[in-house]
Design brief:
This protein has an eight-stranded antiparallel β-barrel. It has helices at 3-13, 83-88, and strands at 24-28, 34-41, 44-50, 53-59, 68-74, 78-79, 102-114, 117-126, 129-142, 145-155, 173-184. The longest helix has 11 residues, at 3-13. The protein has a single domain (3-184), classed as Lipocalin, CATH 2.40.128.110. Helix content is 9%, strand content 52%. It is elongated. The chain is mainly beta.
Amino acid sequence: MFRLLAISITATTLTLGNGPAIAAEWVVDYAKSQLEFEVVQGDSTLKGKIANWSAAIDFDSGSPENAKISATIDTGSMSTGNAQVDGMLPTPQWLDVAIFPAAEFRSKTVQALSENSYQVEGTLTLRGVQKDIVLVFDLNENGKSATAKMSTSLARLDFDIGNGVGVGYVENNISVTGYISASTK
């Protein structure tokens, strides 16, 4: 259930580059970047992190519509710090890591919402299910480096994550946020 969020975060945060209108390949500094997710479970909010992911980003701020962004998430690398939840995440009812070890995001369109804000529409494949998602991020570029703060929301049941677990126990919506640091090649 929580791997889905990781993918979204990765994809959203990877569309870095508000600099010159020259196509640029961006390299994520994973040591300075983080992807997180939250879901309401009962009366509390369960927070988690995604440890292993990779991204390919080709972004030109002068023509964001030509951007190509892809991300791959290791679905077994999500954790909440709660042993019971972390033990359930890889199981067939939730992420089914043995059969679906990775989730993938591929951008379809990228558009500027304002000077430093962008929207990415793309396809997320998780647990063998493909769904279109929308990610929004704010970009801060400084020369050949940039940071982005992103957010999105996913519906776990769209991907059969935690199927059979009612939304009264674990909410359907999962919030994903990320802070990404990257530089041009």
